[in-house]
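Data availability (excerpt). The following record was deposited with the supplementary files.
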Amino acid sequence: MASLKKVAMKNIQMPCLPTKFGEIPAYTFAIKAKYLLAIHYVAVRGQDQEEGAVQRPLSTRRINDIKNYILEGNTFFNSFILNWTDKNFKPTITQQNITIPLAPAAAQVLDGQHRLTGLQAAIDVDANIGESELLVTLCLGLTTKEAAKIFLNINTEQRPVPKSLVFDLFGEVESDEDHAINRATDLARSLNDEADSPLYRLIKFPGSMRGQGSIELSTFVSAFKDHLKPKTGTFHTYKLRDYDKQRAAIANFFSAIRDFYSDAGIWESTAKNPFTRAAGFNGAVDFFFESLIKRCAEKGSFSIPSMKSLIGLDKEGLIGWDELRGKDGKTQRKLIKDLLESNLLNSLPDHSAYEF
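Predicted structure:
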């Protein structure tokens, strides 16, 4: 039987920068989007039984967001990370150049699968996008252990920069409204995703699985966006103007409330905790901006102990969801605000102690 001949494959050559990820050689270069799409494929962990399968299933919502982002004229400055796995066709590397065979499905995606899928969807609308250049870092023949090491480095050791941070860094933003919404969304994502947060996994983002989160993202954004506006927002007025201080103030506030309600065995119960419902959450935010933020600023402290001393809830007087059930939303919201405000009012001096 005659031996099969290797099919001739088109090659493309680009300047490249050789480097290392620890002991793993890697090669960084710019490549046209259409060529990157031609050679890549995704190996999903738990589904594909091959070396280097570390990717998670795709999110349709993220793909659509990326598609629209690209069609609006944006591109990516961070690199795509690939692992070349094709044993029949291999890149040729010199000190200054890399030559890549345009073999279909020759390189696994380690980082960038959503961006690439969104990119393909954008190219389906506008073919000219395929001529744009993207940055790629390519590794050759990684084991699953090596691929997982890179994947975990990207997805655990590094965190995406909040979109609204551009205002803190450069003092520029497209509009106050855009900035306030972006900042509120960034804060919600951080408070929902980070394990040290009192709102960990309590905020429901669009596209979340059923049962994940009980405070709608729209509720969080609506409650905070006006207070996050540059120059006119409450945070700006009290000189809490950067992302880290705003996040800390919100996290400490809900941590203080959580401590009181956890001691009473209410916080962890979704059936009893009023702050995981829109009315209770909004009532708490009303109290924070109308009363607490000023008192914390006067004390010069937004720490959890300072907030707890000001809130000072009585374990026997806590309001659970059962006490709010059946009342209209406006009344529920006011009852929570009044509860949190009660100790502040009680701490005021008697009228006879006022000086006139």
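Summary of structural features: The beta strands are 11-21, 24-32, 40-41, 80-84, 92-93, 97-101, 107-111, 133-140, 203-204, 215-216.
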